[in-house]
From TrEMBL, chain A:
This is Cullin family profile domain-containing protein. It comes from Brassica campestris (Field mustard). Residues 374-601 form the Cullin family profile domain. One of its GO terms (biological process) is ubiquitin-dependent protein catabolic process. The keyword Ubl conjugation applies. Keywords: Isopeptide bond, Ubl conjugation, Ubl conjugation pathway. Belongs to the cullin family. One of its GO terms (molecular function) is ubiquitin protein ligase binding. The keyword Calcium does not apply. GO terms for cellular component: cullin-RING ubiquitin ligase complex. Pfam families: Cullin (PF00888), Cullin_AB (PF26557), Cullin_Nedd8 (PF10557). SUPFAM superfamilies: Cullin homology domain, Cullin repeat-like, Winged helix' DNA-binding domain. It comes from the Eukaryota.
UniProtKB/TrEMBL annotation, chain B:
It comes from the Eukaryota. It comes from Brassica campestris. InterPro entries: DCN-prot (IPR014764), DCN1-like_PONY (IPR042460), PONY_dom (IPR005176), UBA-like_sf (IPR009060). PROSITE patterns: DCUN1. Signal peptide: none annotated. Keywords: Ubl conjugation pathway. Neddylation of cullins play an essential role in the regulation of SCF-type complexes activity. Gene3D superfamilies: Cullin, PONY binding domain, EF-hand. This is Defective in cullin neddylation protein.
């Protein structure tokens, strides 16, 4: 073997460049171009995807991506221009169909072409950042077809025309329209908005502007609202069927604006059919519709609420200031309750229990109830009527309902302290005459008042009940220790603690001997067990049951007041008595005596006494004797009236004065309380704070507050600041 | 003695007369006191009062009462109802009108920097001028309330108040003063509280007579609010 040299193998590059056939690119492109033509001509079945893909791939590989891309664009553009002409040529209804058809074709073609050019899509286009094939295809469609001058406007008008037809009752091809709107969306949201949605909204606006004007001239409010509601529903339906979902809010805004917002005032105030009419006639359905429609627009509900409020206030004001209506307190309050119920029902049925409406209603009631200064008195009288007889035989649950409603009215009162005063008076009369229908109902109401106003409001009222109970025990003890008194007249005493009961000045009166002996015995018995107390007989509040035998032997039991008893007993010793004699013997003050004699002598069916002359009024020269001819079909005859009545003018003044007097110390206490904690406070703030503190009881008058401040300055509780005269300082 | 008396200068004779009138001392004692204090009135008083004198249990013996004041006024050559007496009382911080206690009297003289009635008289025009000073008028006005009212009373009787107001507002013009006094006599008829008195000056000072800057929420006493209503009612002022 001979020596062999090792030789390294080297792979060398081609020593000569491989020259790509310059015609290569053209040739390849032509293949592809032809393929595109075939695709567009619906003749793609014979094509080999693999071959075409490879061709495109090679072009990109050999750096002919650019040629490929531009070629693609040019070819597609040319085709689209052709398609465009075909579409333009379509007549009438087939215009949209042609467009739709061509669009579908385009989409199929584009997909195929995109697949073929996929490599270019992912490499060349990526690196050059040019639009990808698919989006490019869409843009070309948009620019060459949709925005082609002969198509653009015609397309829009066709669509709008169809919408209009549908709105006027015709049936249209919804599917077709849906495809077109979907096409717009595919082309880009801005295309949808600019080329369709915005003009659509403008046209709709015009349409509804006209229609709403027509309706408002020809329909009443309820009808109009029905139609508006119908249109709204239709538009929402329309969007669901052939518009993009995002259009829903926009088109409903248009309808709301044109049909509702623009005519809000006119609708609400429409005579004989607007809001007020609906309220008066309890038109729940119409009201509910109005509520639902108006809540869609700015200030819609505010408008409704404001009109309701001013109507309510006006109506309420008329109600409470009408002298006819305030003749009967019970009716007056019942009317208020009825109105309250009515509005409650309206707000819950038609206004969805909307809190703002409830508040508006409440503030209106509060406003007008307080316009009548007698409201507190009347509400108390209403309660009095119910507790005396109105609630007789009513089930417990229903009683609660009535009392709760009364509490509702009570809450509206600004002068709760006035109510308290009257309530106390009326309760006293009820308790003392034993005329309450249900103890439970009474107690229940007191509990409600306590919950609402606190312990102090009701502590005295509760004291009254306690006194009644205690008195029963006292009576038992009295008769228990005086068994000899079981013969003879029966005395029933209620011992009232002065602070709890409404104050009455003690009226002088001479009791008949038999009675005064008994009373004295009671007095000593009571003071025996309660030293240090003082008793004074309230002769103007008592009652008596007297057995009487008249001229023809008629026997009756007369239920009378203490005064009446004193007068009647005189006739046991005299047949005839003059006014003066009666006055002297009984020592009852003249106005009370006259009232007493009137009730005994001048009331038909109750005239146990005869008067000469037979006039209605009691004169000082009159003469009296027993009416022997008195008859009544009842054995028991009730003559005394201790029933709570609407106050007379002078009584009203007096009560009002007492209330004002009671308020003064309360105001002062509030001022002192506030100043004690704040130490220094300016005038306006004191007024505000005091008013706020007293608001649960009554509305404090700023002038009165000022007077109290001055009084406190005078008494060295407060002083003015040296430098700022509007500041007050608390003096410890 | 008599000889000495004749030799008394006019001013010394005045002083003697003053001393006697005010202290009620005899001429002899007066002369003694004055001589001993070198005719310094104040020192003479001091000495006189510090000596054990036969005194009554009258608590007023250390006081100058109505009579003494009337003498004082005539010596000063002013009417007793001249407002300058108020200014004088203010300097003395007198507790109540028509009486000066010893401390008050001397305190006042000291405050004025005088030691004789003659010098006091010279100070009269100065005292009058003090009323024109805003701050001093304010103090004098407020002082006047406590001074003019009855001892032991909290409020000032209406008639007295009206008199004082007329006197005071003669010095410092307030166009509404007459309406104010009319209003009080017709509508109010009760005594004037301290706060009302003080606030009235503020009202006169700060609120213009046409009420253009009257603030209904201005924490004015109720009486003044009523007065404003009265002015509107009587069309003295346009609303």
């Amino acid at each position: 073997m001979s020596n062999q040299k090792k030789r390294n193998f080297q792979i060398e590059a081609f020593k000569h460049r491989v020259v790509v056939d310059p015609k290569y690119a053209d040739k390849t492109w032509q293949i592809l171009e032809r393929a595109i033509h075939q695709i567009y001509n619906q003749d793609a079945s014979g094509l080999s995807f693999e071959e075409l893909y490879r061709n495109a791939y090679n072009m990109v590989l050999h750096k002919f991506g650019d040629k490929l891309y531009t070629g693609f664009i040019a070819t597609m553009t040319a085709h689209l221009k052709e398609k465009s002409k075909l579409i333009e040529a379509a007549q009438g209804g087939s215009f949209l169909e042609e467009l739709n058809k061509k669009w579908n074709e385009q989409n199929k073609a584009l997909e195929m072409i995109r697949d073929i050019l996929m490599y270019m899509d992912r490499t060349y286009i990526e690196s050059t950042k040019k639009p990808h094939v698919h989006p490019m295809g869409l843009s070309l469609w948009r620019d060459n077809v949709v925005h082609s001058p002969k198509i653009h406007t015609r397309l829009l008008n066709t669509l709008l025309d169809l919408v209009h037809k549908e709105r006027t009752g015709e049936v249209i091809d919804r599917g077709l329209v849906r495809n077109v709107t979907k096409m717009f969306m595919d082309l880009g949201e801005s295309v949808y908005q600019d080329d369709f949605e915005k003009p659509f909204l403008d046209a709709s606006s015009e349409f509804y502007k006209v229609e709403s004007q027509e309706f408002i001239e020809s329909c009443d409010c309820g009808d109009y609202l029905k139609r508006a509601e119908k249109r709204l529903t239709e538009e929402i339906d329309r969007v669901g069927h052939y518009l993009d979902a995002k259009s829903e809010d926009k088109i409903t805004s248009v309808v709301e604006k044109e049909m509702i917002a623009n005519h809000m005032q006119r609708l609400v105030h429409m005579e004989n059919s607007g809001l007020v009419t609906m309220l008066l006639n309890d038109k729940y359905e119409d009201l509910g519709r109005m509520y639902n429609l108006f809540r869609r627009v700015t200030n819609g509900l505010a408008t409704v609420r404001d009109v309701m409020t001013s109507h309510l206030r006006e109506m309420g004001k008329q109600l409470v200031t009408d002298p006819e209506k305030s003749k009967d307190p019970v009716e007056f309050v019942q009317r208020l309750l009825d109105e309250r119920d009515k509005y409650d029902k309206i707000i819950s049925t038609a206004f969805g229990n909307d809190k703002t409406f409830q508040n508006a209603s409440n503030s209106s009631f509060e406003y007008f109830i307080n316009l009548n200064a007698r409201s507190p008195e009347f509400i108390s009288l209403f309660v009095d009527d119910k507790l005396r007889k109105g609630l007789k035989g009513i089930a417990d649950a229903d009683v609660e309902v009535v009392l709760d409603k009364v509490m509702m009215l009570f809450r509206y009162l600004q002068e709760k302290d006035v109510f308290e005063k009257y309530y106390k008076q009326h309760l006293a009369k009820r308790l003392l005459s034993g005329k309450t229908v249900s103890d439970d109902a009474e107690k229940s109401l007191i509990v409600k008042l306590k919950t609402e106003c606190g312990y102090q409001f009701t502590s005295k009222l509760e004291g009254m009940f306690t006194d009644m109970k205690t008195s029963e025990d006292t009576m038992r003890g009295f008769y228990g220790s005086h068994p000899e008194l079981s013969e003879g007249p029966t005395l029933i005493v209620q011992v009232l603690t002065t602070g709890s009961w409404p104050t009455q000045p003690a009226v002088p009166c001479n009791l008949p001997a038999e009675v005064s002996v008994l009373c004295e015995k009671f007095r000593s018995y009571y003071l025996g067990t309660h030293t240090g107390r003082r008793l004074s007989w309230q002769t103007n509040m008592g009652t008596a049951d007297i057995k009487a035998i008249f001229g023809k032997g008629q026997k009756h039991e007369l239920n009378v007041s203490t005064f009446q008893m004193c007068v009647l007993m005189l006739f046991n010793n005299s047949d005839r008595l003059s006014y003066k004699e009666i006055e002297q013997a009984t020592e009852i003050p003249a106005p009370d005596l006259k009232r007493c004699l009137q009730s005994l002598a001048c009331v038909k069916g109750k005239n146990v006494i005869k008067k000469e002359p037979m006039s209605k009024d009691i004169g000082e020269e009159d003469l009296f004797c027993v009416n022997d001819k008195f008859t009544s079909k009842f054995y028991k005859v009730k003559i005394g009236t201790v029933v709570a009545q609407k106050e007379t003018e002078p009584e009203k003044q007096e009560t009002r004065q007492r209330v004002e007097e009671d308020r003064k110390p309360q105001i002062e206490a509030a001022i002192v309380r506030i100043m004690k904690s704040r130490k220094i406070l300016d005038h306006n703030n004191i007024i505000a704070e005091v008013t706020k503190q007293l608001q649960p009881r009554f509305l404090a008058n700023p002038t009165e507050i000022k007077k109290r401040i001055e009084s406190l300055i005078e008494r060295d509780f407060l002083e003015r600041d040296n430098t700022d005269r509007k500041l007050y300082r608390y003096l410890a | 003695m008599i000889l000495c008396q004749h030799k008394l200068s006019r001013s010394n004779r005045d002083k003697l007369q003053q001393f006697v009138a005010i202290t009620g001392a005899s001429d002899k004692n007066a002369l003694q006191a004055l001589k001993a204090s070198d005719w310094q009135l104040e020192a003479a008083f001091d000495m006189f009062y510090s000596q054990p004198q036969p005194r009554s249990n009258d608590p007023y013996s250390d006081m100058i009462l109505a009579e003494g004041i009337s003498v004082l006024c005539s010596d000063l050559q002013v009417e007793p109802q001249d407002i300058v007496t108020l200014v004088l009382s203010w300097h003395m911080n007198a507790a109540t009108a028509c009486e000066f206690s010893k401390e008050e009297f001397f305190g006042g003289l000291q405050a004025l920097g005088v030691d004789s009635i003659g010098k006091l008289q010279e100070k009269l025009s100065f005292m009058r001028s003090e009323l024109k000073d805003e701050q001093k008028f304010h103090e004098i006005y407020n002082f006047a309330f406590g001074w003019a009212k009855e001892k032991g009373q909290k409020s000032l009787a209406l008639d007295t108040a009206i008199g004082m107001w007329q006197l005071l507002f003669a010095e410092r013009e307030w166009p509404l003063v007459n309406h104010w006094c009319d209003f009080l006599q017709n509508r109010h008829n009760k005594a004037i509280s301290k706060d009302t008195w003080a606030q009235l000056l503020e009202f006169a000072r700060t609120v213009d007579p046409a009420l253009s800057n009257y603030d209904a929420e201005g924490a004015w006493p109720y009486l003044i609010d009523e007065f404003v209503e009265y002015l509107y009612d009587k069309s003295v002022v346009e609303k």
